[in-house]
Write a structure and sequence with these properties.
The complex is a heterodimer of chains A (211) and B (206). Chain A is α+β, with helices and mostly antiparallel strands and 211 residues long. In chain A, 37% of the residues lie in helices and 25% in strands. Chain B has one domain. Classes of the chains: A alpha+beta (211), B mainly alpha (206).
Chain lengths: 211, 206
């Protein structure tokens, strides 16, 4: 009994403070959670909208597509002004040079070609790997632009910087100079997600088997 | 450090100004080096980090000062950490809700304020031994000193790495940006040079 009394005497402040601070955090979280979730949703919508500019709305096409063992992603269908599907967008993630890279990837309505990508979050080296997020850079390889119009299948990373190779619209993507790991990470995310999502879209009848 | 027996205006002024120069947390005490090096590539994130630290410092100093007579010596660090973690979590949620872009820019460095030595140092050295008003003034002084230091460091780095300050073009078009200044190497070089400058000024004064 004296041990319990000693324990309470020593730790009552800690116990009371833990409950009080826990309550404070719970109140703050409850009051800000809706706004935080809305911010995340707005950011994703803005990115999808910038990739598929003609889209009037984005509707959830497939919920929780299983990509790898524990990875899932939602696929959104871009709906045009006439109500027809004009493309699909999804979030892909994978390990980069410093941290996880999250991309929003867009494909056309028949899932035949990529419409481009935007970086949802990354922590790549400023001035080097960070170029994966820069569309139309002042200099160096326009890495982001190479994905626009490329066939929506497996893409291959190459390390030559010849302008004719960079400008050619095909499945070959020229890496960013001095940022090969970040470039490889982006290509890996494309290859990991696209095949599975294409298969799921075909199974759900959202695109034709041939397309 | 402030003495509880002398709550005078001069003492308040001395406590407030200590953080700006004499006991500046970055230049004199070399505390809080992680955010100092990590978020000073531009002035906006540096200023936001400074504001977060001021908020956490003031709130934690208030709580620690109010419960200073109830603290058990062997449990005090645990209580300080619990208090600091609470206010850091609230600051992090606030940034995510109202300035989401800045929250992304600062990344893990906002949650890492929990382990910022400045805050636990002020709780231990000041708030746990002084009345409420002195603790608040100490937090404001130290927080302002930390924010000012971060902004000075960030101004130099942003100017040299982009030609801008607060995203406003300052340098002429002919200026060639020094990319290295936005990278960790730029942070170490700028901090080292400023520490040297502060030491020279301190020695010449004394």
């Amino acid at each position: 009994m004296s041990k319990i009394k000693h324990f309470i005497e020593q730790s009552w402040l800690l116990i009371v403070a833990s409950f009080a601070f826990g309550l404070l955090i719970a109140v703050a979280d409850a009051s800000l959670d809706a706004r935080i979730k809305q911010n995340e949703k707005d950011k994703l919508n803005n990115m999808m909208k910038s990739l598929i500019a003609d889209a009037k709305d984005f509707q959830l096409a497939i919920d929780q597509v299983q990509i790898e063992d524990a990875t899932t992603t939602d696929v959104y269908k871009a709906v045009g002004k006439d109500g027809a599907g004009i493309g699909f967008a999804f979030v892909g993630a994978g390990g980069g040079f410093a941290d996880k890279i999250k991309l929003v990837i867009a494909v056309d309505g028949r899932c035949e070609k990529f419409l481009g990508f935007k970086v949802l979050s990354s922590n790549e080296t400023p001035g080097f790997g960070s170029k994966i997020a820069i569309d139309k850079p002042d200099s160096d390889v326009d890495f982001v632009d190479q994905f626009k119009g490329a066939p929506a299948g497996e893409v291959e990373l190459i390390k030559t910087g010849r302008l004719d190779v960079i400008r050619k619209i095909d499945s070959q993507i020229v890496a960013i100079s001095r940022a090969t790991v970040s470039s490889e990470a982006v290509v890996r995310i494309f290859n990991t997600y696209t095949e599975e999502i294409k298969k799921q879209l075909q199974q759900k009848g959202l695109i034709s088997d041939g397309g | 450090m402030a003495d509880e027996s002398q709550p005078t205006t001069a003492l308040y002024k001395q406590t407030l100004l200590a953080g700006l120069w004499r006991e500046n947390p970055v230049f004199r005490l070399l505390l809080g080096m992680c955010p100092t090096l990590a978020v000073t590539a531009a002035v906006k994130p540096a200023f936001t980090m400074g504001c977060c630290v001021i908020f956490v410092l003031v709130c934690s100093n208030i709580i620690v000062s109010l419960m200073r007579n109830l603290l058990k010596p062997h449990l005090r660090i645990l209580m300080f950490t619990l208090t600091i973690a609470t206010f850091v979590t609230i600051a992090d949620l606030f940034l995510k809700a109202f300035v989401p872009r800045m929250s992304e820019t600062l990344g893990p460095y906002v949650p890492l304020i929990i382990v910022n030595c400045i805050i636990i140092c002020r709780a231990e050295a000041c708030a746990s031994k002084n009345p409420l008003l002195v603790s608040i003034i100490d937090a404001l002084g130290m927080g302002a000193g930390f924010t000012l230091t971060l902004c000075v460091l960030a101004s130099i780095r942003e100017l040299l790495s982009t030609g801008m300050i607060f995203e406003v073009q300052v340098m002429p078009d002919a200026f060639v940006p020094w990319a290295a200044m936005s990278m960790p190497v730029g942070a170490f070089i700028t901090l080292g040079l400023l520490l040297g400058l502060v030491n020279i000024i301190s020695r010449s004064r004394s």
